[in-house]
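Worked problem 6 (solution included).
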Amino acid sequence: MRRLFVLSGKRMTPSSHQPALLSVQRLVGPVDESFQLKNVNFSLGAGDALVIIGPKGAGKSTLLNLLSCVAPALSGRVVYRGRDILSLAPYRLARLGIAMVGEHCRLLETATVLDNLLLARHAERRTGLLQHVFFPPWVRREEVNHRRRAEEAVDALGLHSVRGEKICNLPVGVRKFVDLGRALVMRPRLVLGDEVTRGLNDKECAAMVSALKNVRRRGASLVLTEEKEGGMAGLANRAAHLEAGELRFAPAREAAPL
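Solution. The predicted structure is:
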């Protein structure tokens, strides 16, 4: 049975009195063949979870690509912890505490599960090539810490049996959990998840939702997408529908106890 991922840090409870962790203001995306994201506005507090529901081709992936700076926006602002991040390169977001779990796993196919998790710790590294050549005690301590974080993800997501397997030998369901683990070893404050349960069976879906619940319980915010409402039931406290580039919010709701 897969166990819940435990993030280090103090447990936080979402509060309407806390300043917004993420604020999206009048965001306009590029023109696609069938739609254009228009005037997208929303904010998210610490520990909040927003699920964006829409059919294939509605613009869900495009919106997350804009939020993660993978695709350029035509106009608008994306303010994260008081800073407009739209002009930043995508790799800089990891150091700021933003992690992305895509619909299609972006893992190194010829590397092992553990190596993929260790590579995801790059944003936390404070050492360079020269330090690793001489490998002084403080560098060894840093490497031990990186290994510990990766092993925590292996333990929490039930990946023991495949920790030494190459990604190219693993089924889609297992790859999804490795991709989630890769995001979580970065200790994110904000997780963007694009249809993270696509391709999973019922048991794997339940395990994925449980892992994401625990991420939210520890104070991280979530922006998730799915095609049909219901997969994230009990996880998100906010929901919006996206169709033809228009984002419409449903009434605020209480998520089930985390």
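Discussion: The chain has seven helices and ten strands.
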